[in-house]
Structures are given as C-alpha cells and as structure tokens.
C-alpha cells in the first residue's frame, strides 16, 4: 500500500526538502498551500505533476491553518498516514509586529489539525509531526536538550509553546501518535531571504557581483546552532517512524555567532573582514581594499533577543540513528555559491537586483 503524507507549509524550505524525500521513498505526497496574489511555489515547481497524469503522487490543496473547516475537509479527502505540520508564521521579528496572527496560525493552527484528526476518527491511522523549535528555549542556558525548561522570548516562541504542549496533551490524553521535533536553526539555499543566513549570503553574492554596496545587520553577537535543512527533514521522517511518539531535539551540537557567519560568507569569495568600533557603531571593513562592507542598523534588533542556542542531539543520535551530515563551513559555502549563481540569473532576467531582505 502506498503511504500518504500531508505536509502543511509545503511551499517553504523544509516542505520542499521533505516532499522530495517522501516522494523518493515512494509516498503519495499532499501539500497544503495558501492562496497568494503572487506565485509562491518556486521551491516545489520541479515536483509538480499534472493531476491528469496516471499515477501522479504529488498533489497540492489550497488551505490555511487559520481555517478549521478547510483543514477538516483536506484531512478527510487525503486520509493521511502521516501529517507534518510545518506551516507557520515563522519569522521571529515579524511575530512582534503580528502577534495575534502568529498565535492564530502557529498556536491554534496546530490545535485545529489535531482536532481534525479526532473529529475524523483518524487517531489510530494518522501520525502527527509538530514543527517545534529551539526558540522555545529562549533564555535557557546552553546546551539545551529535551529536559531543558522552556523560556520563550517572542510572540512566535509563545505561540509555538502552546503548539508543543497541545501536541503532547493530545498524545497523552487521546493516544495519538503525536511527536514534537525541537529543531535548531536549519538553513539552505532555499532559506527565506529575510532570515539572517540567507540575507548574508545574498548580500555577499550581490556585493561580489557589484550590485550592492554593503550589508546592514542587527545583533552580530547571537549564537546559533546552524545545520542544513536537508539533514533535518530526514530527522522529521525518522521521528514518525519510531515505535513510540516522543519529543526530539535535532541539532548539530555546535554554535557560531552571526558575526562568524558574516566572516565565513565573505571568506567564501576570498574577502577578509576586519571589525572596527563597538555596538551600533561597529563596522566590517574589507582588509584588502579598505572598503566598508558591513554596518549595523538598529532596525534589525528585536525587542527581546535569544542569545545562545546550542542543541544537544544525543537522544536523536542514540534512538533514531540521526546525525547531521553537513558542517557549518560546508553550509555557508553552499549558500554563497548558490546565491552567486541565482543573483546572476536574476540580474540577467530583470536587469536589477530584487531585494526582500527588510527584516
Ligand atoms: N533576520 C535577521 N536576523 C538578524 C539580523 N541581524 C542579526 N540577526 C540575528 O540573527 C539571529 C538569527 O535570526 P533568524 O535567522 O531570523 O532566525 P531565528 O530568529 O533564530 O529563528 C529561526 O530559527 C528558529 C529555530 O531556532 C525557527 O523556529 C524560526 O522559525 C526561524 O527559522 C537572531 O539572533 C537575530 O537577532 C538581520 O538583519 N536579520
């Protein structure tokens, strides 16, 4: 029997990698996508199959985590063996501007999906994966593992805390196979352009190609545990194949500062950055040419910051046999090289640089 998966957030970075993985494993993959005035399917266009094609295993459904009746109907139609809830308003800084929407989509959206499973009496058929996050740890001291108490520091993290707990409550109360993957930051060339890694690699590529002068940054001191998204979707799948539902940290076990990410990204194109000044006066200068390349813009600071995320993935390693395979250095390099190619292509097509990195 072909297994069926429903992925919410299929148009995002993780949704695209997970869809590829599940298709390669022989699954029938259904994805939920929001209607938008502009095309938002670039990351999955290569997977699209005309639904009239015999044996098509990739299907998209319109939907939204804020729309309960829609979710119930889609779950009823698909009758999934596995649901991966990856949809969210996932930008931490944006959540300070849109806290109510973030709570609705990220918190209540998770509840709506769990309720859909119950209403349709799929408790014994459908396994549920919740995209929980290292942002839950917030101010908790590193390293963080499954037993570390959560101290969320944003509307996004507070909404995800509700989602984490309601997933556990439905597991314990109703016997659902409902699991939380507590994923630390994971990036790739498909990362959204307003997250810090992609913002940096796009800027480095654009500067290198002479299309941009400099990069404006927020807090350079944050430490993050950055891995490659392709490794992490493999972990999500393993979490749902385990013999019991549980909560799992996926991380590399290595933390680097935002400053270090900037340095490595410029190093990938042969530039060395030297830092001058402190705080908002800090500047990144190209050692060879003396050119000012990085400046601080306080607009990118958040009302609350998460200073240090460093995951301890030993449980996932021991019990799921999961481990990251891409190093920090390889990740940065892959992203810079991909952006050099992509920006060259965009520039040829539009004659100008398209810049979305406003957050
Ligand atoms: N986005 C952004 N972040 C900046 C900038 N300058 C400094 N930073 C710092 O870079 C760090 C990482 O920011 P993001 O890349 O936006 O990611 P995040 O806040 O860590 O959240 C991401 O990872 C979580 C997992 O821990 C995810 O849950 C979340 O959805 C998101 O993907 C933060 O400390 C942020 O303050 C900037 O110009 N833009």
UniProtKB/TrEMBL annotation:
Gene name for this UniProt entry: gmd
Keywords (A to Z) from UniProt: Lyase, NADP
Residue ranges constituting the NAD(P)-binding domain according to the UniProt record: 6-335
Entry similarity comment: Belongs to the NAD(P)-dependent epimerase/dehydratase family. GDP-mannose 4,6-dehydratase subfamily.
The keyword Transmembrane appears for this protein: no
Cross-referenced Pfam families: GDP_Man_Dehyd (PF16363)
Highest taxon in the source lineage: Bacteria
EC number: 4.2.1.47
Catalysed reaction equations from the record: GDP-alpha-D-mannose = GDP-4-dehydro-alpha-D-rhamnose + H2O
Listed cofactors: NADP(+)
Any one Gene Ontology molecular-function term assigned to this protein's record: GDP-mannose 4,6-dehydratase activity
Protein name in the entry: GDP-mannose 4,6-dehydratase
